[in-house]
Amino acid sequence: DGLAEMERQTNRRIHTILQLRLHGSIIALKQKTITEPSRRHQIDLCYITSRGRWYHASWKGDEAKSGGVATNIGIHFFDMLMFIFGRARRSVAHLREESRAAGYLECENADVRWFLSIDANDLPADLDAQKRTFRSIAVDDDEFEFSDGFTDLHTRSYEEIVAGRGFGIDEIRSATELVSNFRKATLTRGGDWLHPFAAKHVKK
After folding, report:
1. What are the pLDDT digits (tens) for 92-115?
2. 136-142, long-range: CB within 8 Å, 24+ apart, which pairs?
3. Using an 8 Å Cβ cutoff, are 103 and 95 in contact?
4. How would you classify the pairing of strands 167-168 and 15-16?
5. pTM recorded for the entire structure
6. How many Å is the Cα radius of gyration of the chain?
7. CB 193 within 8 A of CB 39
């Protein structure tokens, strides 16, 4: 709200970097869902990106500054999910720790169970030892690959801004409100909607 007021006072526009909206695979998935307007999708989202001790020593590890894992890392994925499957109708928190978070998100056209982590111990055992990041989205049990194609997305974002096609702050409001509410939400065990990667971290 403060940024919106600043825009009004200065008659300037603030742009946000929603780089996943520019990812070719994400765009293709959105186009596919548009052709299936009556279908309700079942989604599993898992994103594990290893971070060293520096992460917790920096502002990123200070929840008062970064908002925690769900905000600092997850917000791009929540924006992506709503970009593809519609606005969030319901959000449930299953796990909220210093290094990981998990929950359930109900969008207009999809039910999503998600897990985020910056702990290398959460990486799949069969993952190539050289890889420190694991990104996976399963859409209706079909694995959706989007591990590559991230290199130039920030540059493309700035190119879009210069061309007058950047994303404004209104477009990130829904995801911002979502992660803000997640930080205060009461934790639940999850049941069938608990992500498998989160199961061992949720108290029985």
Report:
1. 999 999 999 999 999 999 999 999
2. 136/44, 136/45, 136/46, 136/47, 137/43, 137/44, 137/45, 137/46, 138/43, 138/44, 139/29, 139/41, 139/42, 139/43, 140/41, 140/42, 141/42
3. yes
4. antiparallel
5. 0.87
6. 17
7. no
